[in-house]
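Help wanted!
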Amino acid sequence: MAGSNPNAKPMNLTLNVWRQPNRQAQGKIVEYHVKDISPDMSFLEMLDVLNEDLLHAGQDPVAFDHDCREGICGSCDLFINGRSHGPEKGTTTCQLHMRKFSDGDTITIEPWRATAFPVNKDLSVDRSAFDRIIQAGGYVSVNTGGAPDGNEIPIPKDISDRAFEAATCIGCGACVAACKNASAMLFVSAKVSQLALLPQGQVERKTRVENMVAQMDKEGFGACTNIGSCAAECPVGISLENIAILNREFLAAKAASNNLA
Amino acid sequence: MLLDSKIPEGPLAEKWEKHKFNVKLVNPANKRKYDVIVVGTGLAGGAAAASLAELGYNVKAFTYHDSPRRAHSIAAQGGINAAKNYQNDGDSVFRLFYDTIKGGDYRAREANVYRLAQVSVNIIDQCVAQGVPFAREYGGLLANRSFGGAQVSRTFYARGQTGQQLLLGAYSALSRQIAYGKVKMYTRSEMLDVVIIDGQARGIVTRNLVTGEIETHAAHAVVLATGGYGNVFYLSTNAKYCNVTAAWRAHKKGAFFANPCFTQIHPTCIPVSGDYQSKLTLMSESLRNDGRVWVPKTVEMAERVRKGQIKPQEIAEDDRDYFLERKYPAFGNLVPRDVASRNAKMMCDEGRGVGSTGLAVYLDFSEIIKRTGADAVSQKYGNLFAMYEKITDEDPYQMPMRIYPAVHYTMGGLWVDYNLQTTVPGLYATGECNFSDHGANRLGASALMQGLADGYFVIPYTIGDYLAQTPPKPVSTDHPAFAESKAYVQARTEQLLAIKGNRTPDQFHKALGHIMWEYCGMARTAEGLKYAKTEIQKLRQEFWSDVKVVGNGEEMNQALEKAGRVADFLELGELMVDDALNRNESCGGHFREEYQTPEGEALRDDENYAYVAAWEYQGDNQPEKLNKEELTFENVKLTQRSYK
Amino acid sequence: MSWITKTLTSSIGRKIIMAATGLFLCTFLVVHLIGNLQLFKHDGGAAFNTYSHFMGTNPIIRTIEWGLVLGFGFHIYEAFALTRRNKAARGAQGYVSNHSEQNSEWTSRNMGILGTIILIFLLVHLYNFFWRARFAGDLPRMGGDNLETRDYDNLYMAVVSSFHHLWYVLLYVAAQISLGYHLWHGFRSGFQTLGLNHRKYTPLIKSVGYIFAVVVSAGFAAMPLYFYLFTNDQGELAANVPTFIHTVASAF
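Answered by r_m:
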C-alpha cells in the first residue's frame, strides 16, 4: 500500500556498513544485503529492516543515533555514499527516502569522521564537543525571572528573520562531517551570528565569540578554508554568510575587547 | 490514601501569589547544600535544571540523548500560548484559563490551569530575553497566530519551529549553568529506578548507554521531566526514544499515575503508508488556519479517488464536503483537536476517506494560494510543505495534503499536587510527564507553555518548600536502598538478556501498538477494552518468555534499551485500558462509543466522573487501586462543550 | 602567550593571516603584471630593462620588497600550519567513500596542491631572474648608446632566451593555470575570511575575483607563449606569424 507512487517496485540493496564495537576497537566495513525495500521507506526505516534481520539471525544490530525522525532533533548523522545525510539536498538522514535510490544499488554508510567526534559504536559518534562550545558562551546570560516585557525592545523583522535563520541549526554535525578540514565553523558561526544580530546578544557579544572560538579550537576541529561543503550539506540551509560574520565578530572582538588573556 | 492536591485557599486569581508567599524558603547560603536531580532536559527539565541552578542548588541533570538539545520538545511546530493580549482582541489570563479548562473538557484542576495562564506571560518575556527569535511584525513587535480551540490570537511562534527555538533557549540557559559548574550534565544516561529512603525520593539509578554501566546518584529531591508515553501506540508523532520507563518506575515505587487513558490524537498527521512505518509525522495545527478540511461528498466519489481514477483537484466544489465548516460554523476548521480527529475518523468510517488506504482526509490550500499567492503561503508554511513533499512525494501547492489523526500527546501522567509533587515526597513531575493542566484534551500550543511554566516558574518555588523542611546534610549513595535498586536494575537487564527468544522488541512493540490503537485509540468500547486487556496480558507473558536481545549489558546495546522500554509499555498499556474502562463517559480525547450525544459528540458524566483517576501500584500482576481526586469547579460553569 | 599571539595562532587568526597576505599578494600580482607587459613593447627590451632596473634599485621599492618576502613567507607558513591542523582534525580514519566533488568546487579543496605548484614555480622563477639579477650578477648588460642605460642588466634578453626553452614555458604555463585556480577560490575566500561580506556586495566581489583570476593568469601565461611561439631568439616577431599578432603587438 504505497503512499504516493503505486508503481514503485520494492528494491534489493547491498549495504556497506561501518562496524566498530566501541571507541577503542578497530572498525571495518561489513557488507549486508536487504530485500524488498519499499521506495516510500525512510532511510532509517530501511536500517530498521536490516537490524530486525540481524537480530533474528542472532547478530548484533547496527548502532546508530536517531530520534525524532522529522529532521529537527539533529540526532541522525550518517555519511551515506560519501555525503553527509546522503545525496538529497537540505535533508537529514531520517527524511531521506529510499525513492532516491534504485534497485541493486550499493550504499556505503559511515559515521561522521572527526577527531572531535569519536565513534561510540558502529555509526554512533560522540558530539559532546558541540555542547561544550555552546557552554563556552552560546547564550545570553539572563536568569529566570525579571525579564522585561517581550515587546520592550522592537527588533526589525529582517534582523529577526536573519537571526531565526541562523538559529535553526539542529547541531547534527553534518557540516563537520562534510568539511575537508572537519571544521565546526558553520555550527559556531550560526550561534554567534544569531546572538550578534539580536539586541539581547550585544552585552556579551565580544566575550562570546572569543570564548566560543577558543573552545572550538580546543576541541580539535579544523580551520575553515571557505570550501563551502558545510553549507551545501547543511540539512537546514545555514548560510556560509554566517562564517564571514563569525570572522568579522572575532576580529572585532579581539581588536577591541578588554580581555588581555 | 486521601489525595491532597494542596490547592491554596482564596480566590482563584490570588492563589498563586499567596502560595508563593506562604511557601518556605531556603536561604541563599543554604541552597548550595542541596542537591537536586532533574531527569530529562526538554522544555520542562531543561528549564527546571537551569532555573534551580541559577538559584544556587546543585543540580544533576540526566538525558538519554547525546545532548540535552535533542529532547522531543524540539519537534513542536506551531507555537506557544500566552495571555499577553498584544493583539487587542480581548484576551486575558482568565480567558486563557477558561479556554484551557473548556478545551480539556472540564477534567483539569482549576487552580493549576489558572496559574499556568498567569505565568504564560512571563514565559514569553523570559524567552525573548534569552534571544529566542520569535516571529515579528514589520514594526518590530511580536507577532501572533490563532490556534484551535480559541477565538483570539495568542500563539507566539517561530515559523514552524517554535519548539526548537524554545528548547534551544532552555538549552542555552542550561549550558550556561553547566559552564558555571552548577549543573552536572549526564548525557546518554537512562534513568531506570527511583531510590526511596524513609518514604522520600533520594536518588536514581541510571544506565550509561555507551558503557552499559549501572550508576547510582543521590540527591535531596528528584524532578522527573521525562515526557509523555504516546509511544505505547508504537506509531505516534513522538520521537522514537520517547518512553514511559522513568515515570513507570516512579509509579512502581509509589507515585500514582493519573488519567492514563487521556491520550491526544492529533488530527493533522501524514497518513501511514506501509507496515514498515516507524513513526508518524505531524503537520502543525497552524495549517488549519488556512487549510480547509474536506472529503468527497459521496462514497462513490471517494471510491474513485482511492482507485486513482480522479484527482482531488478535479473534484468540483459541489462534490466536496467541508465537514468541519459544515458541522461547526463558529469554529470551522479550528475546532479542538479531539473534535477534528473524531470527525475525520467518522468520515473514513463512512467510507468517504481518501488515499490508497481510505484512511485520510484532505487538507486543502488551493483557496489561500489563489487568494494570497504561493509565495505568501510558502512564507508561512514553507518548511511544513517541504517536509510533506519529502515524505509523500506529493506537492501540496498542487494537490491537497492527505492527513489523518495520530497519537500525539498524553494528558495523563504522574499525579501531582499543586506543588507538582507526586505522591512520593521529594519526587516531582513536570511537563508532559505529569497530568495536571490539560484535562482530557490539550489545546494546541499549550504543551510548550506548560513545560516552560513548570520548569521556569513553578518548580523553582515549590521545590524550595520541600527542601526547606529537609535537613541539608549530604545524601550518600552508600545507603542500602541504592544497592537494592541497583541490584533490581541489574537483575532486570540480565533477565531480558537471558530469555533469548524469537521475537524482537520491535515486534512486541508493534503488536502492543496495534492493540492500543484498535481498542484504546480514538473510539473505545467496554467490550473492546476488555478484549484488549486480555490481549495485552497475553502479549506481556509472551514477551517475558520470547523476547530476543543479543549482546550483553556492558556495551552500547540499543536492542536492550528498547526491550526495557517495551516491557514497561506492556504494563502501562493495561493500566490505560483499565482507566478507559473505568471512565464510563466520553470527554476530550477519551471517547467511549456508548456515551455520545445524538449528534455524535462526547457525552460527559460530570456527576460521576468529574474526578482525577489516580492509580496506585499494588505489585506485579496485581490490579491497581483507584484513588479519586474530586474536581471542583468554582469559577467556570460545566457545560456541554460546543464549538458550533 | 599574549593576546596577540593567541589571536594569530587561533584557527581564525591563522586564516586571517592567510587572507590578508593573500590579498596583499594579489596587489603584487597586479603591479608585476602591469610592469611585465612592457615585454611586449617592441623596443628591444629598453623599456622593460629600465623598469626592472628601477624596481631593483629604488629604495622605496626595495623596502616594499621586504613586505613581499614576509607576505609570501607567512602565506606559505600558515598554509602548512593550517594543513597540518586540518588533517589532524579529520583523524587517522578517514572516509572509505567521500564524494566531496558533489558539494564543493575542486579548486576550493585543492588550494594546497595548487599552492605547492606555484611555490615550485616561484623558486625556479626567482632563481632564474631575481637571483641572477640581484645577487649572481651574471646577466648581460644592455649596452647601446644611452649612457644612462648602457650598464643596466639586460633582463629582457634573459627572459627571451628562457622563454625559448620548452620545459620552462611548460612550467610557466602550468604554474599560471594553478595560479588562476588558486585565485579563483582565493580572491573571494580572502574577503570571506576577513569578514568582508555583505548581501549586496559579495556577489560583486565574487565576479571580480573570477575576472581577476582569469586576467592575471592569462596575462602572465601569455608572455612565455608569445615569445616561444611568435618571436626569434632576439625577441623580434618572426616573419611567419599571423598579421593580427603583429597588430596586437604593435598596439603596446
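OP: Thanks! One thing I noticed: The helical segments of chain A are 43-56, 128-135, 157-167, 174-178, 185-197, 205-218, 229-233, 241-256.
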